[in-house]
Design a protein that fits this description.
The protein is mainly beta. The chain has a single domain, classed as Beta-galactosidase, Chain A, domain 5 (Distorted Sandwich). The protein is built from six helices and 19 strands. This is Lipoprotein.
Length: about 400
């Protein structure tokens, strides 16, 4: 069995999984995704849904809901809708009260989730599940839309985020979402797209500015920009993460992890992302290459995520177990939905996640994290060349669980 960095679920933690997943997404009936057009019909219940478009590529965005990308399509209105979001909350209007857990292909949170500098628990409370909370501004603060066009939406808001040490981060957040032309996708990834492949690519830029009265410090705690994307799963979906350096294992969360769900082959991590087993893995900075992806043979869909990355020693640690180093956390995470004895599933979805490093920002200083998501749909024989060029792996040679 592959060596694991940590396993943090024991039997009494079942309630933790329930609370965490409700925090992430909220409990809802299992609503199946269909076409982009069908999802757009649901999203029209949100007043400011804006569709970015170039040729057949389409991306549904809400600037008000903190620059959230809900879903996308590579084949226009009739194409598959790739993103998972909480459809019931939009249909019944409950998202207007609390929207941090709506899901979507790209949304912004802040880390860490646990540890002495976490932003999910009040000072003095134990890390028991009933004390977990979402920062109010992430739940309810509507951003102001600064500009929007056929290709880009930019919105902004000011947030107060309090950590476990009662330090308050006063943050101006600006989120820009833009759709990419075919030429830009080819330039970014150094590939050529043929007529056999449909495509969509979008970029989110998240800028945070310290607008408080003092410098952010390691001693009082730092935060990371945490980008999460919920994607529609299939039974044979596999996440593919190329790595660097010597990698013997991954950070493991919530449940035991077996070779039937994760394997490392030639420095590539393969992880079964089928939304049938609740689990999460992480990649440390020393093993990180700032690109990863997933493949669904059922949907003939290759998904790629690129993000900005620096070799900083400061990445927020979000493990629930006792932490030796609160700044020794992950860069890449994959969350897999599933069922345990007491709860689930809650999507179904899996998440492709990246985190920025943590910075000791001076007053007025800015940190930026950019994430780029691409979907390519077509026969495996055509997707093979793209996957090999970007991930270093032919899909036809991938680990099959």
């Amino acid at each position: 069995m592959t060596k694991l960095r940590s396993t943090i679920l024991i039997s009494k933690d079942s309630f933790f999984i329930f609370c965490l997943t409700v925090l992430l997404t909220g409990c809802q009936p299992k609503l199946k995704s269909g076409s982009f057009e069908a999802d757009l019909d649901i999203l029209k219940n949100i007043n400011d849904i804006h569709v970015l478009q170039t040729e057949n590529a389409m991306v549904a965005v809400s600037g008000n809901l903190q620059g959230r990308v809900f879903t996308s399509s590579s084949k226009g209105l009739k194409g598959k809708s790739y993103g998972w979001f909480k459809r019931k909350a939009i249909l019944d209007g409950s998202f207007k009260i609390q929207f941090s857990g709506l899901g979507g292909e790209d949304r912004m949170w802040f880390g860490p989730q646990y540890g002495k500098y976490n932003v999910f628990f009040k000072k003095g409370s134990t890390f028991e599940d009933e004390h977990m909370r979402m920062a109010p501004d992430l739940d309810t603060l509507s951003f102001k839309v600064l500009s929007k066009s056929k290709k880009k939406v930019t919105s902004e808001g000011c947030m107060k985020i309090k950590n476990y040490q009662d330090f308050v981060f006063d943050i101006e957040v600006r989120r820009s979402v833009s759709i990419m032309e075919k030429k830009k996708i080819e330039e970014n990834l150094a590939i050529s797209l043929t007529e056999n492949i449909s495509y969509v690519g979008f970029e989110t830029e998240t800028k945070i500015t310290n607008v408080g009265s003092e410098k952010w410090s390691k001693e009082k705690g730092l935060i990371s920009i945490w980008i999460l994307g919920c994607i529609i799963p299939t039974d044979n979906t596999v996440a593919i993460i190329p790595t660097r350096g010597r990698i013997e294992g991954v950070t493991n969360y919530f449940t035991p992890l077996y070779d039937s769900r994760m394997q490392i082959k030639d420095r590539v991590v393969y992880y079964k992302a089928d939304a049938n087993y609740l689990n999460k893995i992480g990649i440390l900075p020393e093993n990180t290459i700032p690109v990863f992806g997933s493949y669904s043979p059922e949907m003939n869909l290759l998904t790629i995520v690129e993000f900005t990355f620096d070799d900083s020693p400061l990445y927020m640690n979000s493990q629930k177990t006792e932490q030796i180093d609160p700044y020794g956390g992950d860069v890449i995470n994959i969350f897999n939905d599933g069922t345990i004895a007491t709860a689930g599933p809650f999507g179904p979805f899996y998440e492709l996640e990246s985190s920025s490093s943590a910075k000791e920002l001076e007053v007025g200083a800015v940190q930026t994290h950019v994430s780029k998501t691409y979907h390519f749909e077509g026969d495996e024989v055509y997707l093979d060349a793209i996957a090999e060029a970007i991930l270093g792996v032919k899909l036809s040679n991938r680990v099959i669980f």
